[in-house]
TrEMBL record:
Pfam families: FUSC_2
Residue spans crossing the bilayer: 39-61, 82-99, 105-123, 135-152, 158-177, 345-363, 398-430, 436-454, 466-484
Family under the similarity heading: Belongs to the YccS/YhfK family.
Domain Integral membrane bound transporter: from-to ranges: 356-478
Protein known as: FUSC family protein
Topology relative to the membrane: Multi-pass membrane protein
Length: 637
C-alpha cells in the first residue's frame, strides 16, 4: 500500500469522532503484505479461469468462497486456521444449499431465514470457529436467496467449497517447511514485548505485553491436538510463555524496590527472542544477585534461556490437561445454550432478519439480499458495538459504492475488471485491521465489481447497494438496538467481577509451590483482565451518552490491575528468599476479593477487609483496600 494512502487512512480514523472508530485501540500491527497478496490471488485466480473458459460465472462462487474464508482467517497456528476456515466453508456451502431451495418461492423465504438466523446465533457462541461458521451459514443462505446461478445447487455448493480449499492451500503453503512457524512467531513476539518492558514498565507497556502474552497462549494452545497426550515442542513453547510471565512479575518487583534490571538480563531476553526467530541458542551471562526481586528476575531469565536451548521442562510447567473431542464438543454445546445474552441476541437477530426477509419477499427493493446481509453482519455480537458498526457500515458502504461506481464507469467490462478486484481484495485485510468502516469500504467496492461480472448491472449497482444497506442499518438500529437496553452498554461490571474472582482464585494458591495448576491460575488472571480491557474498549466506542458512564469503571480497573501486580510482586519475592505469608492470612485476603466480586455483581458496597498484620502481605492488602475503596466510593449501574 502506498505510504501516502496509509497516512491518509490513519489521519482520517484518528481524527474521526470516538463513536465512528474504536476510541481505544491498540497500535496498528505492522503492515503484512502476504495476507493482502494471498487474498487478492485467492479471489482473482478463479475469476481469471472463468474468463479463460469463456464463462466467468463459473468462477464467481469459488471466488466468493475464497473471499469469505480468507476474511475469516485471523492468524494463529496452522491447525487452528484450517479448522476455522474449513468450518466457515462447510457452513457457507450448507447455507447456499438452504437458500437455493427457497429462492423464487415467495414468502417462504421469511420463515427459512428466521430459522437459519436462530441456528446461526447459537452456533456463533461456540468460540471463534463457531462464530465464523454461524456467520457464513447465514450470509450464504441470504446470498443464495437473492442470486441465481446456472447449474445444480449441489454443484454450485461444491464450487464454493473449492474456493475455500484454494485459499486454505495458499494459507498453509509454508506448513511442510516450517510447521511450528506461527507458534514460535507468537512466542517470539512475547519476548520482544518483554524486552521493551526492561526500559518501559508503565501501565500501557504492561497492558501491551499482557495482550501479546494472551495471544501467545491462544496460538500455542490452539495448535495442539485435542487427542490424549502431550506435544513436547508445544509444551516447551508454553513453558517459555510461563517464564515470560515470571520475568514480567520480577521486573515489577524491581520497580517497587526502586532498582533497574541488570543489563545482562535484558540481553539474555533479547537473545531468547532471536533464538526463537532462528538465531543461535543464547547463553546466560552472570547476573547480579542482590534483593529477592533481582534473584527472581535472574532465575526466571535463566529458565527461559535453558528452555530455548533445549533444557528439560519442569513438571509444574505442563501447560494444559489433554482434552478429548467429546469433552470439547460438550463444552461448546454448553456455551451455546447457557446465558441470558445468548437468548437475547438470538431474538434480536431473528426479529431483524425476519423483517428484512419480509421486505425482500415483498419485491419492493432491487437486490434486497444486500439489506439482509447488512443486518446479519452488523448484529454480529462479537464484532463490537452494534451502534458503531451500523454507522460505520453505512458510511463505509457509501464511500465504497462511490468508488465501485467510478471503477465501473472507467473500467470496461471484461478481464480488465480483475485488476481493481485484486486491489480491493488485497486492501480488505488492511481495512479489517483498522476498523469496520474501512473494511466495509473495500468490501462494498469488491462486491459491486463481482456482481457486475454476473449481471452487467453497471454503475447503477452503486445506488442500489447504498439504498439497501441504509435500510438494513435502520432496521438494526430501530429493532435490534434501541428497544434492547442491554445492547446500549457493554457488560463491563460483570467482566470486572469475573476478573476479581479470578484474581481471588489465583491468590489462594499463589504461594503454594506444590499446586500443579498454579501457572494456569496465573494465566487466568491476565486472561480475565484482557477480556475486561476488550469489553471496556468496545464500550468506549458507544455514543457519548453511554461511553461517559462507562469511563467511571476506569479507577476500579486500574485498582484491580494494581492488586494483580502486587500479588505477582509478592510471589516473586517470596520464591527468592522473602518470608512466605501464612496461609490463613492469604485466604482472608482472597475471601475479601471474592466478597468484592459479589458486591460488584449485586451493585452493593463491599465491606472493609480489615487490618492485616502480616508484613509480607502488606503490599497486597494495601492494593485490596484500594480496590475496595474505589468500588464502594463510586457505585455504578
Amino acid at each position: 500500500m502506498p505510504p501516502l494512502f496509509r497516512r491518509a487512512a490513519d489521519r482520517l480514523t484518528d481524527a474521526a469522532p470516538g463513536w465512528l472508530v474504536e476510541t481505544v485501540r491498540p497500535a496498528p500491527a505492522p503492515l503484512r503484505w502476504w495476507p493482502m497478496l494471498r487474498l487478492a490471488v485467492a479471489v482473482t485466480v478463479p475469476l481469471l479461469l472463468g474468463f479463460v473458459s469463456g464463462n466467468v460465472t463459473t468462477g464467481l462462487l469459488p471466488a466468493l468462497g475464497a473471499m469469505n474464508a480468507g476474511i475469516a482467517d485471523r492468524g494463529g497456528s496452522y491447525r487452528a486456521r484450517i479448522v476455522l476456515m474449513g468450518a466457515a466453508g462447510v457452513a457457507g456451502a450448507l447455507g447456499y444449499l438452504v437458500g437455493s431451495m427457497v429462492r423464487g418461492h415467495g414468502w417462504w423465504i421469511v420463515p427459512v431465514v428466521v430459522a437459519v438466523s436462530v441456528v446461526s446465533a447459537f452456533v456463533s457462541t461456540g468460540g471463534a470457529t463457531g462464530s465464523a461458521a454461524g456467520l457464513q451459514l447465514l450470509v450464504m443462505t441470504v446470498i443464495a436467496t437473492g442470486i441465481g446461478l446456472p447449474g445444480a445447487s449441489e454443484t454450485n455448493a461444491l464450487a464454493f467449497l473449492l474456493g475455500v480449499l484454494w485459499v486454505i492451500v495458499l494459507a498453509v503453503a509454508d506448513w511442510p517447511f516450517h510447521p511450528r512457524a506461527p507458534e514460535r512467531g507468537a512466542v517470539m513476539e512475547v519476548y520482544q514485548a518483554l524486552d521493551r518492558l526492561f526500559s518501559d514498565r508503565d501501565a500501557p507497556a504492561l497492558a501491551a505485553f499482557d495482550t501479546d502474552l494472551k495471544r501467545g497462549y491462544d496460538v500455542v494452545l490452539g495448535a495442539r491436538s485435542p487427542a490424549a497426550g502431550l506435544d513436547a515442542d508445544r509444551t516447551r513453547l508454553v513453558a517459555l510463555l510461563n517464564q515470560a510471565s515470571l520475568i514480567r512479575n520480577a521486573l515489577l518487583s524491581l520497580r517497587y524496590e526502586g532498582r533497574e534490571p541488570p543489563a545482562e538480563a535484558a540481553s539474555a531476553v533479547r537473545a531468547v527472542a532471536g533464538a526463537l526467530a532462528g538465531g543461535p541458542a543464547p547463553r546466560m551471562p552472570p547476573c547480579e544477585l542482590g534483593s529477592p526481586a533481582a534473584r527472581a528476575l535472574c532465575s526466571a531469565v535463566r529458565g527461559a534461556v535453558e528452555l530455548v536451548s533445549g533444557g528439560d521442562v519442569a513438571a509444574d510447567q505442563l501447560p494444559y490437561e489433554p482434552v478429548g473431542y467429546r469433552s470439547r464438543a460438550l463444552s461448546v454445546l454448553e456455551q451455546m445454550w447457557r446465558g441470558h445474552l445468548v437468548r437475547v441476541y438470538t431474538v434480536r437477530l431473528a426479529l431483524c432478519m425476519g423483517v428484512a426477509a419480509a421486505f425482500s419477499a415483498s419485491g419492493r427493493l432491487e437486490r434486497s439480499y444486500w439489506m439482509m446481509l447488512t443486518v446479519a453482519l452488523v448484529l454480529k455480537p462479537d464484532f463490537g458495538s452494534v451502534f458503531v458498526r451500523a454507522v460505520q457500515r453505512a458510511l463505509g458502504t457509501f464511500v465504497g459504492a462511490l468508488i465501485g461506481t467510478l471503477l465501473l464507469v472507467l473500467v470496461p467490462y471484461g478481464p480488465l475488471l480483475l485488476v481493481p478486484i485484486a486491489v480491493c481484495a488485497a486492501l480488505m485485510p488492511y481495512g479489517l485491521q483498522r476498523n469496520w468502516g474501512l473494511m466495509s469500504t473495500f468490501q462494498a467496492s469488491l462486491v459491486l465489481l463481482l456482481v457486475d461480472l454476473l449481471t452487467h448491472g453497471g454503475p447503477d449497482l452503486g445506488r442500489i447497494r447504498m439504498v439497501d444497506t441504509l435500510i438494513g442499518c435502520v432496521i438494526v438500529l430501530v429493532l435490534g438496538y434501541l428497544p434492547w437496553p442491554a445492547s446500549w452498554e457493554a457488560p463491563v461490571g460483570p467482566r470486572l467481577a469475573d476478573a476479581v474472582a479470578a484474581t481471588a482464585n489465583y491468590l489462594r494458591h499463589a504461594f503454594d509451590t506444590e499446586h500443579a495448576g498454579r501457572a494456569r491460575l496465573r494465566r487466568g488472571v491476565y486472561d480475565a483482565l484482557g477480556d475486561l480491557r476488550t469489553v471496556f474498549q468496545r464500550a468506549l466506542a458507544e455514543p457519548p451518552v453511554i461511553s461517559r458512564r462507562v469511563t467511571t469503571w476506569m479507577p476500579a480497573m486500574a485498582a484491580l490491575e494494581q492488586v494483580a501486580d502486587a500479588i505477582a510482586v509478592t510471589v516473586a519475592c517470596t520464591e527468592r528468599g522473602a518470608p512466605p505469608p501464612p496461609e490463613a492470612a492469604v485466604w482472608t485476603l482472597a475471601g475479601s476479593l471474592e466478597d468484592i466480586a459479589g458486591n460488584i455483581r449485586e451493585r452493593s458496597d463491599p465491606g472493609d477487609p480489615g487490618l492485616c498484620a502480616e508484613e509480607s502481605l502488606e503490599r497486597v492488602h494495601s492494593a485490596v483496600r484500594g480496590l475496595r475503596d474505589t468500588v464502594s466510593g463510586d457505585r455504578r449501574g
